[in-house]
Amino acid sequence: MTPKILVVGAGAVGGYFGARLAASGHDVTFLVRPRRQAQLSATGLCLVSPLGDATLTPRMVTADQLTQPHDIVILSVKAYSLAAAIVDMAPAIGPQTRIIPLLNGMQHLDVLSSRFGHEAVMGGTCFIVSSLDGEGRIHQAGVTPRLVFGPLVAGQDASTMAEALRAPGFDTVPSPHIMQDMWNKWSLLASLGTLCCLMRANVGEVARLAGGTDFVHATIKECTSIAAAAGYPLADDTINGIVKRLTQPDSTLTSSMFRDLSQGAPVEAQQIIGDLVTRARMHGVATPILGLTDLNLRAYELRRDSR
Ligand SMILES: NC(=O)C1=CN([C@@H]2O[C@H](COP(=O)(O)OP(=O)(O)OC[C@H]3O[C@@H](n4cnc5c(N)ncnc54)[C@H](OP(=O)(O)O)[C@@H]3O)[C@@H](O)[C@H]2O)C=CC1
Ligand SMILES: CC(C)(CO)C(=O)C(=O)O
User: Fold this and answer.
1) Minimum-distance ligand to the CA of 188?
2) Angle at the Cα of 147 (from 142 to 148), degrees rounded to 5?
3) ipTM greater than 0.95, yes or no?
4) Residue ranges per structural domain of the chain
5) 4-176: in CATH 3.40.190.10
6) CA of 110 to the centre of ligand 2 (A)
7) Which site from 14, 74, 147, 274 is most exposed, i.e. has the minimal number of CB atoms within 10 Å?
8) For strand 72-75 and strand 4-8, is the pairing parallel, antiparallel, or unpaired?
9) Could you name the CATH architecture of 181-305?
10) How do residues 222-241 score in pLDDT, each as one tens digit?
């Protein structure tokens, strides 16, 4: 039987992966809120992508219409929307449901497991550069996106789920070491987020500054030291890959958190940076750069909240 997939959040990430899956014939429904539902009903779900543009008519439900358990739930809301999303998606979670969260950071795993049980929650992460424009179209840029997921407890079988999550337009990667993958991604993301948000610049702009790459090296060192202290040391070639990616003088790469910050939108500061600083303190790892980024982002949030 074709697995029933629910994508919670039809934004830049969930909209991209969900649209690619739906376009290739998978049984995909999007859980949306009324404003996004109205927008998608009017325009269709539009992808603008170097891998091929697409517009489709998505199958959507709002929380009050969600009654059936689904086999796979792809959770792709921002961290600050997690609590409400958990309430809204609850009817979709049955005894056999597997949730694949694509949120950045790590805190959501405990929150989801305490609500839905450890068996329901798998590890997940994604590599994609995507954003929404003013009309709600999804713009994906850069290399082929990657969807990575894997078991956190016995009985979760990522390889049999892989077929249900394979589609042209992204790579599907079932992983036997998803916690390490999530720490690798977190180290990359926190380094990139720090680089962009502290310097208010993209990768290439910082790399071209005198002293810019020293700052990037020091930032990556802090992030990877925390991962190692937490029991997930990054392999040398993974660290070298992050260094290479974040020191390219011609790169226009930014983090999604920086793109949000540039628009004056809410940011996932606590999930991406604050939580890492907290874990560093627990392990006695010094974080002068991440600590500054944390303070910087909290000041941004304070000003934003007081507007
Ligand atoms: N964008 C990127 O390049 C990347 C982002 N990520 C991570 O992925 C996660 C999602 O980010 P992204 O897709 O960019 O965020 P977006 O803001 O683009 O999308 C989030 C979507 O979730 C929807 N949503 C929120 N709450 C609910 C709810 N209760 N029910 C239904 N829909 C809901 C929002 O809908 P509404 O319109 O109603 O507010 C919005 O469409 C984040 O943790 C981010 O850090 C990871 C890798 C790359
Ligand atoms: C690091 C990156 C670009 C990889 O997908 C990302 O996750 C983000 O910008 O949020």
Assistant:
1) 2
2) 130
3) yes
4) 4-176, 181-305
5) no
6) 21
7) 274
8) parallel
9) Orthogonal Bundle (1.10)
10) 999 999 999 999 999 999 99
